[in-house]
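Entry for the shared binder. Reason: the reviewer on the internal report wants the predicted structure included alongside the sequence.
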Amino acid sequence: MKVVLADLPMAHLKGEPVTESPNLGILYLISYARERLSGVEFVYLEPFLTEEKHLRMVKEIQPEVYGISFTTTYKELAYKTIYKVTSATNALVVAGGVHPTLDYLDVFKNSNTDICVIGEGEETFCEILQNRMNGKSVKNIAGSIYRGCDQNALRHGLSDLDFFPAWDISILLNIMEVFGKNFPSLMFFQPEVVRIAAFFVRTQFGDCKNHGLE
């Protein structure tokens, strides 16, 4: 099964922080799923791609699942991108990130998204792929909401932060070509940094569901 996980195509913002490093959340999704599923081919589309190249690669790959992450700031670009992807493929569209988590109704209203992942997506997205591969329904998976369906059970924050695998940077198709010697320093963060940050958030704010962030 072919799966594309994508940032928005934002070549027009080259030089801005949003395009200067890969999406670590997406890299974790890929690494987590790769350790648990076989027969899945992942392609990551980076944020510094042009819209033309982004869509050309999606058309060439013809993924069964297309996942995209975006914030509220860039939601209009996300909706435009999703429209073009669904016009060119039959992919199941899964949206995640800040905006789908906080306002999934807006996502469903303004795009052809099939599923919104709410909050942390490693376990949820992996289960979506597993069900899809096994011919099972993807409508009732905890931590997600399927278009036209009631909200599923929320998935609580990960209790075992040691699950984080190392990023598989082999997934980065174009980043060395673009950055060369200026390869983003963020790529050299270690998983321990993520564990410490997550621990801080949990100890300061407690269970995310009490703050509407689950």
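Summary line for the report: Residues 181-197, 199-214 have pLDDT under 50 and may be disordered.
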